[in-house]
Amino acid sequence: MTDPFPYEIDETLWDEACRRAEAIREFLKRQASSATTAEVGKLAAEMGVSQATAYRMIKLFRAGGSVLSLVDRKRGRPEGHRTLDEKREEIIRAIINASYLKRTRPTVSQLVRDVHANCMSAGLKPPHRRTIVTRLDDIDLQKRAQRRGEQKIVKATTPVPGVFGASRPLEVVQMDHTKADVFVVDEETRQPLGRPWLTLAMDVCSRMVTGFYLTMDAPSRLSTSLCLLHSVFDKSAWLREREVTEPWPVAGLPDTVHVDNGADFRSRAFKRGCEDAGMAIEWRPPGEPRFGGHIERLIGTQMGKLHLLPGTTFSNEQELGKYDSKRHAALTLRELERYIALDIVGSYHQSIHGTLGRPPIAVWREHEGDIPLRLPQDRLRFWLTFLPKQERTLRPTGIHLFGLRYWSVALSADVGRSDRRLLVKYDPRDMSRIFVRRPSGNFVDARYADVTLPSITLHEAVTARRTLLAKGRREVDTRAIVRTAMVQRELVDAATKKTAVARRNGRATHSRDTITPLGALSTRQAGARPAERAPRPPARHAHALGRDLRR
């Protein structure tokens, strides 16, 4: 059985693994070369493991191990771990939100009294004060301070404006979304589809764009994850597919990913994936856009380039004037993606940056030899961690996903063996293959069942299916269906009445095979020839008959 994904680990086990990882990182910083047995013993006591286990964990981290390797593999909850029932948990949450997180700043003692009163009213045992305080500690300190109007705490937990920066490439990568200021058209009909969303990632030190993702869907964990994957991996093959010849040398895991407070950046899968790969996440303070100034300026630059395209919406209504964006729209999503890629690698990277005074690619090249390039140890697993998922049943015909059918010889052994739904990972940018987790836990690469089909995106697959269904609905003759239903109804009513009348009059139809009594035979029927009516006696009685005649 392969290791689970980070987001599949129990919260308590994962937090403990993160604590161990941090302890080992600090230990390795202090002990650059070798460590004594006593020092390792002290680390083992800090982590709550045996000395032998501590040595094993140190070895894993020196070899580039991950947080996942430190997860306790024992089944069940950790010893001594206790949880409240959901009813009491809900009461605590409700009282905290309704009574404690207010600008009147009620005390913790008042919160405890309110929780105890509500629990006793519901016939439940009141939780201990420490349990309630622990739930308060789970709330982000800055969020709690803002809700309660505790400005000193808000100020103490807010970074000082103007000091955010990076000393080397890939130390900090910023990510953000924007709705593109241009309409795109459908691949087949060339009719306007709408304005796509662009997710960009940028290295703060060199100002190089590290990756991007363009989609018609609103910002989500999917767009965030796909942008990060594009940012981390080598882009040579991606550029060749889009016939872009200029280089894009950026690749590698960033030390820190700097994002806003959107729900897509706070999803469990995204956070766990980053933590497992050793990437820290920093969220910009709510209502403080200046902390994302680098990526905001880049987005502004990119949108300015799109204002030159047919179908642009410009930045505001004054600029738009009487220009009909939808009517002038000309580029498809693929064409716009290639246009943006060309602009990034052939124009933006090569032009002098206002703050740097140099082209971003020149700054990158200058530090390229000194960049500690980190890539995921298991590249496929890292990739699968951030891909979206579905669950599907394995049929004898394969895996069916978004109207497409996939098959792999490796799945043959699983057909009909289990009713369990299988986890399926897919890349919306290339639907020619998917990854299926077998009941054994291993992932297999499944391709189109029809190998002659070309690679398409998920958006193209969904649009094509929607178009086909719409065409089918247009081809349906509703009037003919109604007319036929009325005729069928009249036929059934008439048949029912005929049968009822016939049964009342005793004229039910009998089978033609009814047996006729022997006495009812007609004279003609009974008038068979004598030879036929008097068959010849058997030979064995001939002698006896002769004796009787002689007498």
Could you please describe the fold and organization of this structure?
It contains 22 helices and 13 strands. With 551 residues, it is an alpha+beta fold. It has four domains: 65 residues; 71 residues, Arc Repressor Mutant, subunit A (Orthogonal Bundle), CATH 1.10.10; 197 residues, Ribonuclease H-like superfamily/Ribonuclease H (Nucleotidyltransferase, domain 5, 2-Layer Sandwich), CATH 3.30.420.10; 88 residues, no CATH class. The strands form three sheets. Strands 8-11-12-13-10-9 form a six-stranded antiparallel beta sheet, with no helix packed on it. Strand 6, helix 11 and strand 7 form a beta-alpha-beta unit. Helix 1 crosses helix 3, helix 2 packs across helix 3 and helix 4 crosses helix 5. The longest helix is centred in the C-terminal third of the chain and has 27 residues. The protein is globular.
